[in-house]
């Protein structure tokens, strides 16, 4: 993180602290006023004078000066009661921008407090691609109102944006872009650009199209500036450029932006017609969202969670994988139970079992993390998957010999049994091999069947390496120690 990013983060956190302080003062003063013994009318007048004109007014001024993204950050960090209090103070002409910025879980709590008219006005503040992002969270009657208020062209754009699957390039693209013809001069292009009150965000290039809107090439803004006004667009435009397609996976577009350091990229259909563009800010948002989703999925959470949601709602979000984890824990306990006789005769086994399971679980998680990352980057193919598996098995063998040997020596030192040390080393070696195989098989299998390879992977890995480790260790002990 560079100095500018650190400074920006500190600024946002400072804004949050200031908002929390104003809310605390507001609540404290309100409590004091309501404890005063006076007629109800006088009390309301005092509240209006002391509260609204002081802390709430200060809070209003504070919010008016913040960027929508900063307000979204603050709303996500506040308990629901304070969040709604702040939301009421936000100017209505900024509602749409903030709703787009907040997380899905927090957006739900805000939308629940808004009337049909407020939601319609908030949606009308946004571009069509942003309305499409907001549409799944809006009531049907609100979306009907929004459609009626749009122009025919905007309606078509909104229908197109909503038709693409989540996670596709079409779902990321916007329609605000600058198009020019190849047979005009740079002087004409410059005059055309000056007619805009403001260029679309992240306009680093203009798109060159023919009369049927088919993409011919791109013209970087810097070429317009440094070349003579009489030059034709067609003589300067770049034809060898990255082109995206609406049905492509957004993850592939993200890789293109990272690989080629793109700021924007055209989106064309099967006929080569320019239908939109994707910009780097949207790609960064997608990457961040995917990273957060992977983190939640690995922990076994079904969906993004509002940290201040009700206990009931948060608990339900965590039940599915906890239920699976409970089942696997019972299975592991039955594995141990089937070797009760062995454990009774050699009590030391009970103290050493967690070591065998723990080290294999850690190693398997390392393998899975590498595989998931490689899948996200498109680096694993059917051709090289076998070679990668052999490599991971070789790593498991090496680690098993090294760390299994250390664990075996540790067991021998504690219990003065050479046989126990050998069983310990062998069990760790075999369980590391199981972990390496499962660590690759789970994400690859999920990816093959179109599922997110990160979903619940850590839960499944822990279950398998625990049960497998107990079975291998106690099985070897039964064969060679009893």
Oligomer: single chain
**Tally of contiguous helical segments:** 22
How many β-strands, per DSSP?
5
Strand content: under 5%
Count of the domains: 3
Under the CATH scheme, the architecture of the largest domain is: Orthogonal Bundle
- What percentage of residues falls in helices of 4 or more residues? 55-70%
Report on the architecture of this protein.
The protein has 482 residues and is mostly helical. The protein has 3 domains: 3-167, MgtE N-terminal fold; 179-296, CBS-domain (Roll), CATH 3.10.580; 311-480, Orthogonal Bundle (Tetracycline Repressor, domain 2), CATH 1.10.357.20. The chain contains 22 helices and 5 strands. The strands form 2 sheets. It has a 3-stranded mixed beta sheet. Strands 4-5 form a two-stranded antiparallel ribbon. α12 links the parallel β1 (179-180) and β2 (205-209). α3 (68-76) crosses α5 and α19 runs antiparallel to α20. It is globular. It starts with a helix and ends with a helix. The model is unreliable at 1-8 (pLDDT under 50).
């Amino acid at each position: 993180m560079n100095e500018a990013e650190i400074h920006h983060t500190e600024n946002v956190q400072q804004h949050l602290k200031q908002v929390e302080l104003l809310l605390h003062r507001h609540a404290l003063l309100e409590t004091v006023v309501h404890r005063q013994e006076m007629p109800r009318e006088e009390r309301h007048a005092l509240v209006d004078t002391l509260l609204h004109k002081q802390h709430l007014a200060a809070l209003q001024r504070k919010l008016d000066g913040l960027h929508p993204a900063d307000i979204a950050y603050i709303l996500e960090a506040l308990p629901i009661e304070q969040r709604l209090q702040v939301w009421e103070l936000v100017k209505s002409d900024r509602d749409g921008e903030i709703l787009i910025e907040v997380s899905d879980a927090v957006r739900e709590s805000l939308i629940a407090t808004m009337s049909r008219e407020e939601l319609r006005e908030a949606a009308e503040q946004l571009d069509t691609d942003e309305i499409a992002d907001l549409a799944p969270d809006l009531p049907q009657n609100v979306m009907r109102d929004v459609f009626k208020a749009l122009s025919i062209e905007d309606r078509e754009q909104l229908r197109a944006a909503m038709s693409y699957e989540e996670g596709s390039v079409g779902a990321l693209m916007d329609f605000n872009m600058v198009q020019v013809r190849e047979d005009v001069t740079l002087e004409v292009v410059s005059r055309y650009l000056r007619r805009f009150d403001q260029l679309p965000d992240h306009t680093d290039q203009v798109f060159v199209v023919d009369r049927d809107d088919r993409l011919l090439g791109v013209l970087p803004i810097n070429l317009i500036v440094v070349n003579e006004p009489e030059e034709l667009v067609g003589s300067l435009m770049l034809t060898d450029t990255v082109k995206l397609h609406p049905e492509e996976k957004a993850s592939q577009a993200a890789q293109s932006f990272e690989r080629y350091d793109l700021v924007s990229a055209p989106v064309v259909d099967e006929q080569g017609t320019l239908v939109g563009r994707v910009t780097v800010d949207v790609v960064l948002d997608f990457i961040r969202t995917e990273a957060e989703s992977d983190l939640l999925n690995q922990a076994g959470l079904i969906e993004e969670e509002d940290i201040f949601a009700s206990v009931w709602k948060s608990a339900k979000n965590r039940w599915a994988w906890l239920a699976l984890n409970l089942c696997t824990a019972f299975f592991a306990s039955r594995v141990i139970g089937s070797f009760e006789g062995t454990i009774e005769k050699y009590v030391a086994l009970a103290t050493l079992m967690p070591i065998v399971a723990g080290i294999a679980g850690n190693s398997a998680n390392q393998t899975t993390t590498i595989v998931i990352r490689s899948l996200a980057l498109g680096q694993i193919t059917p051709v090289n998957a076998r070679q990668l598996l052999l490599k991971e098995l070789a790593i498991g063998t090496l680690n098993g010999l090294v760390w299994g040997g250390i664990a075996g020596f540790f067991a021998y030192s504690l219990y003065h049994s050479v046989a126990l040390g050998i069983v310990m080393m062998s069990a760790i070696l075999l369980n590391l091999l199981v972990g390496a195989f499962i660590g690759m098989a789970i994400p690859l299998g999920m990816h093959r069947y179109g599922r997110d390879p990160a979903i619940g992977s850590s839960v499944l890995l822990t279950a398998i390496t625990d049960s497998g480790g107990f079975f291998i260790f106690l099985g070897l002990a039964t064969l060679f120690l009893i």
